[in-house]
Amino acid sequence: MSHRPTPDPKSSMWGLIAYYLRFCRLQRKLTGDLLGEIMGCSKSTVSRLETGELNLDEAQAAALDNTWDTGGLFGFLVWYATLGHDPNWFRQYVDLEVRSSVIKTWQVDLVPGLLQTPDYARAGLISGNVKDLEGALERRLTRQAILDWEDPPMLWFLLSQTLLELPFGGVDVMKAQLAHIIEQSHRPNVGVRVVPKSAGAHPGLDGAFMLLTLTKPHREVAYVEAQGGGRLAATTSEVAFYALRYDQIGHHALPEGQSRDLIKQTMEAM
Predict the structure, then answer these.
(1) Fewer CB in a 10 Å sphere around the end CB: N or C, the chain?
(2) CATH 3.30.870.10 residue spans of the chain
(3) Which of 34-43, 85-94, 172-181, 243-252 shows the lowest mean pLDDT across its residues?
(4) Which 8-state DSSP code applies to residue 17?
(5) Structural contact between residues 147 and 187, judged by C-beta atoms closer than 8 angstroms
(6) HSE of 28 in the Cβ direction (CA atoms, 13 Å)?
(7) Which CATH topology does 13-83 take?
């Protein structure tokens, strides 16, 4: 098992879960392998759960509660943790992103990271007053490597028309960004559809979110963006809520061909 320390249990609800998971394992004199058998995961996954690199999910919590007869404690902790904002939410998201077979994104204000050009990404990081600009830029662009995998995930993007019109980083940067979106949309594993302003009020106005279908173990999770952070939605009911919302937003989106035309028109009008 990893000798890295567990998070401070007072840092967040997820930190408390990681701390308490290791405490319960050691109290019962279990190895990481044995605990992994209980939760249906590997020893390395147990280690990452205990150090806070991964968050305990609903199924793993249920397995612990059933085996240890906790009265549902771990399930309750996970439920409360998913209600709050996690300061490390994006690290969690990136970890799951590379293990996904399908990634669905709804974005309102910014071009999704997997579609960003270097200049657009740089402009965004500068506006966010990021301290290590070059390091953050490299990490963001490195994520795009999944586009060129031999067996890449399916990437479905729903984009608000308003984000296409914002001259992020200046007109030249934005024109190049829109051209890049059109280019990427022709990949066989990438779908880009635009929700036009003419759609009026629709369910997506509340904010951006992502839906991920994981391969091992097979499950679905949702990530919800918010000011100052974000949160993982892993419960079956909440994931189903966002899956339905994604479909509802999709009903307002243009077909792919018309979406490309609208992006091109927006680019030419700048």
Answers:
(1) C
(2) 89-117+145-269
(3) 85-94
(4) H
(5) yes
(6) 14
(7) 434 Repressor (Amino-terminal Domain) (1.10.260)
> Residue 194 in 3-state DSSP?
strand
Q: What are the beta bridge partners of residue 229?
A: 226
Give the whole-angstrom CA distance, residue 160 versus residue 87.
26
Amino acid at 206: D
- CATH 1.10.260.40 positions along the chain are 13-83
Calpha distance 258→76 (Å, rounded) = 46
Please classify residue 168 by burial: count the beta carbons closer than 10 Å to its beta carbon, then call 0-12 exposed, 13-18 middle and 19+ buried.
buried
Q: Is pTM beyond 0.90 here? A: no
Q: What is the CATH number of domain 89-117+145-269?
A: 3.30.870.10
